[in-house]
């Protein structure tokens, strides 16, 4: 190794050591939490956080997406949270749920049926008319208890005006200014997925214990319950009305909510939602009962629906396909050679050509052509007759052919387009040509 090479290596090592020392002197290793958005499981399951919370509190939680599991519910006492739209529920399934509740189960549902006064064509209430369902379909679980959800209609303009008035009035204090800060406009996917509501949140209070402070909850202020039969045992109310009501059924109870704000992932950590859910589900019940949560209804595939409701049609279609394949693929014995086409007679072709020309209204042209041919034969064989006057020429041709004067005149001069005169004229012309 030469001296110059050794100097270069030493300088390079010194520069590398200097850079490394400066880097570790100026920087240090830290762990930083970065928000990456909700996981795919949380985006699919709006009640995932609720299930995780109840699991940590000691409950046996099952997150389900198939309504067929309702055929084998857990033994009471247990809690079934069903915040979905029950449009596919019939009388049989609803009666089975009510039977399970009567045995001691706790059923938590959210209704999507809205009642209101009957309206005329102009959208105005009809005086004296009974209330009707304005939106959704009859709720087979709650209608029998006289529970009717009411709705206050608000346009987007009114909602924007209320938000602007609240911002101008300065109702939000310094502590909660961040919580009530204006939110960006929702996107179309948020609206379609149900992640955004145009309703105004309303503060409600739940009294679970007479000696404890009430728990603060938030519900949509545009919906509230009406108890038409005075069967509600306990409720959570706000300024607009009750948003959560409970009725007894046998040894169990049914809890009905106007909306699912206390359960969803985005709002479970707001106000006292988490504490309320835990204390409410344990109120008057065993501490660690099983909890089933249905977070969506997974619709069966097209093939599953056809197999369930159209099995005979599928069997018939399969038999038809098998028969068609059997007829198309298999042959019995060798294939027969294609027969040679029979050669037609010349007169058949001539007859076919004549019929074609007659259908095309060319009979007069054929007759004129035949007359011209007869006159050419007359000029060639009997030139003296050709130079005679027409009357004398007809007499000569009639005498030679044995036809009458009328038949010869018709063959040479008639212009009728009917089939019978045409055939008679052709027959006479042929006889005249043969006599020349």
3D architecture notes:
The protein has 436 residues and is an alpha/beta fold. It is 42% helix and 15% strand. α4 (91-102) links the parallel β2 and β3. The relative contact order is 0.10. The model is unreliable at 171-185 (pLDDT under 50).
Note the main attributes of this structure.
alpha/beta, 436 residues, 42% helix, two-stranded antiparallel sheet, elongated, 7-stranded mixed sheet, single chain
Strand order of the largest sheet: 1-13-2-3-12-11-10
Tell me the quaternary state: single chain
**What does the average pLDDT come to?**
82
Percent strand equals 5-15%
Distance N to C terminus: 135 Å
Report the radius of gyration as a whole number of Å: 49 Å
Largest sheet: 7 strands, mixed
Which structural class is indicated by helix and strand composition? Answer: alpha/beta
Question: What overall geometry do the principal axes of the alpha carbons give?
Answer: elongated
Q: What's the number of helices?
A: 15
Q: Which runs of at least 5 residues are low in confidence (pLDDT < 50)?
A: 171-185
β-strand number? 13
Order of H and E elements: HHHEEHEEEEHHEEEEEEHEHHHHHHHH
Residues in helix, %: 40-55%
